Amino acid sequence: MIKKWQEFLKENIVNPDSYLDMRMQEIKSLLDTMGNDTLIYEWENQDDHKLFINFSANGLSVRYEFDIDDMILTKIVGNVTDFTKDVESMESGVASIQKDIHGLLGIA
Fold first, then answer.
1. How much is the pLDDT for 38?
2. Where are the alpha helices (DSSP H) in the chain?
3. Number of domains in the chain
4. How many CB atoms lie within 10 A of CB 84?
5. Cα–Cα distance for residue pair 20/14, rounded to 1 Å
6. 72: Cα separation from own chain's centroid
7. For 31-64, what is each residue's pLDDT tens digit?
8. Angle at 69 between CA 21 and CA 63, to 5 degrees
9. How many CB atoms lie within 10 A of CB 5?
10. For the whole model, what pTM was predicted?
């Protein structure tokens, strides 16, 4: 079976068994339904140890850095750290990121 290069890369980047990748894909699917062409959302999961999310919409550039080993979530807007906070679990860190992105986009 011959696969397109993009399909091959996608299979190796996204781990379907990873909780983080599953939740990040849920957020991406929600954002895709909004139909906003200026919206950029991408993430990098480093073996469930660190999660990096880059989010841009309406000229606003936001980066979330989630250190899962130390349970520290950092939000960077532009080049300025907006906040750094300790979270109780992987789930609460991801929920904080999702809630913040929803707030930025005005999603209830």
1. 67
2. 5-13, 19-32, 90-105
3. 1
4. 12
5. 10
6. 15
7. 777 766 667 888 888 887 899 999 887 788 999 9
8. 55
9. 7
10. 0.77
